Amino acid sequence: MKYKKFKLFSKSNKIETIFYDETSEYYSFLKNQFDQGYRQVIISTSLIISLLKELSTRYGMQVYKIEFNEDDGELTEEMFQLIQSIQKNPAYICLLCERLEFLSDDSSIDISRISFKGKIETIHVDIKIQSNGIVIINEEANNIVDSIIKPMVERGVFG
Q1: What is the spatial distance between Cα 93 and Cα 43, in angstroms, rounded to a whole number?
Q2: Per the confidence metrics, is the pTM higher than 0.90?
Q3: Domain presence at residue 147
């Protein structure tokens, strides 16, 4: 499966998605966008949790991996177990969200990447959303970034 990378930027109180070609150097890419008036979008843990809730409940996407900024084997195992439980019973998404909110508020643990898979309409989707504003998605589903992810992030960033 081939993937595309997009970077989320803000400009004039709107979120813009710009394709990132990995053959170019990342910091040159960022500087070029900055010179054109774009500002990086950082996706906070609270926004990632909002995306988790909406993608799971509204679109039926399944979370299959959560990565954190700090390497904590115990936490990784706990998240793995919760994700496994969700696959058996989708109601466990509530427990996962509660646990993530608690970790974020109480322990300042930040999510670096969350991965989803599923089907939206007739399109199979595999998407990874990173805290640095990078969205990685399978080529067949790349329109999902603009049609679904971008408006969600826009609401989360600008209200």
Answers
A1: 20
A2: yes
A3: no
